[in-house]
Amino acid sequence: VPNAAGPATARPESEARQLMQRATEILERSGSKRESMDSASELANRAVGLDSTDEEVLGPAARIDAWMIYMGYDRSAERRQQAQQRAARAMALAPDSHAARWARAVVFAFADGSPAMLIEGERILRSLAAESGNKSVFTDLGTVLRDENKFGEAAVVFERADDPASAGWNYLSAHRIDDARRMALALPRRPDALNLRIAIEWWGAEDLT
Q1: Distance of alpha carbon 67 from alpha carbon 181, whole angstroms
Q2: What is the rounded CA–CA span in Å between residue 199 and residue 105?
Q3: pLDDT at position 192 over 90
Q4: pTM for this structure?
Q5: Which of 62, 79, 130, 179 could join 86 in a cystine, given CB atoms 3.0 to 4.6 angstroms apart?
Q6: What is the pLDDT of residues 137-164, one digit of tens each?
Q7: Which residues of 166-204 are buried (b: 16+ CB within 10 A; e: fewer)?
């Protein structure tokens, strides 16, 4: 799960922004585990409660909502509406800002998730990735491409995000065995690396040792 901080604006670092930064740090450190997502969501709600007029607070909060939906932790109508409202409010406040556009893309792709919204989310994320080079944007874009079954493209994007595990699995799904092997060898010796290596061997690849 990506970090919610986009390019900084000139607005002073408020308490609300500090809370949101803590939320994104939790996500970056712990990924999409339920407990971490719940903590990040709680901090995001506190931040919005302090300042609901800052797109740098509303945008990341909307993205956290969208990830809660996407991961299946909270698919309630209330959560979906909250994600949409926060993203829309961020866009109304600063339609050209990185944070607002990122929120809109992620809500389209992960809170809605229909084929049309995946395409629109992909379009916005491609633009943001080209502008900023933010690895967390690449993570979101790779996830969208994977969900669209564009496995080869997704793998390349996950490499840009410094996520060799996701890149490896997507290369494997695209039947690019040599690239999948390369990613497996780049991983530390941990369970996900072993699982990827086993899967590559199952697909008939050469031994990785």
Answers
A1: 30
A2: 32
A3: no
A4: 0.87
A5: 62
A6: 999 999 999 999 999 999 999 999 999 9
A7: bbbbbbbbbebeebbbbbbeebeeeeebeebbebbeeee
